[in-house]
Design brief:
GO terms for molecular function: rRNA binding; structural constituent of ribosome. Helix content is about 0%, strand content about 65%. By secondary structure, it is mostly beta strands. It has one domain.
C-alpha cells in the first residue's frame, strides 16, 4: 500500500515505515503530524485517485529530525563586464517517518 501526498509544494510517493525529507514543518521532534493533502492511494489492484484530493484520506507521520541540506553554490558572472557574484544556500528540511495510511 502506498499513497501520494502533497506537502511543502511538492508531491511524494510514501509507504508505511518509509523515511523521507520534506520541506520544513513547524513541529517538534518525536511529535505526530497528519498529512491531509492525499492525492492518490493504491492498495494492491485498488487505486483511488482524488479530484484533486481523496476525500477522508490521511497519512500519519512522526517527525524524526530537523536539519539543513548540503550547501549549494551560486555563481553569477557577466563576461567582459567585470561582474562576479558568489552566493551560497542551505535549505532547511524535516525528516519524517510514515506510520499509517488511512482511507
Amino acid at each position: 500500500m502506498y499513497a501520494v501526498v502533497k506537502t511543502g509544494g511538492k508531491q511524494y510517493k510514501v509507504s508505511v515505515g518509509e523515511k523521507l525529507k520534506v520541506e520544513q514543518i513547524p513541529a517538534d521532534v518525536d511529535s505526530q503530524i497528519v498529512l491531509e493533502e492525499v492525492l492518490m492511494i493504491a492498495d494492491g489492484e485498488q487505486v483511488s485517485v482524488g479530484a484533486p484530493l481523496v476525500a477522508g484520506a490521511t497519512v500519519q507521520a512522526t517527525v524524526v529530525a530537523h536539519g539543513r541540506g548540503d550547501k549549494i553554490r551560486i555563481f553569477k558572472m557577466r563576461r567582459r563586464k567585470h561582474y562576479q557574484k558568489h552566493q551560497g544556500h542551505r535549505q532547511n528540511y524535516t525528516e519524517i517517518r510514515i506510520d499509517a495510511i488511512s482511507k
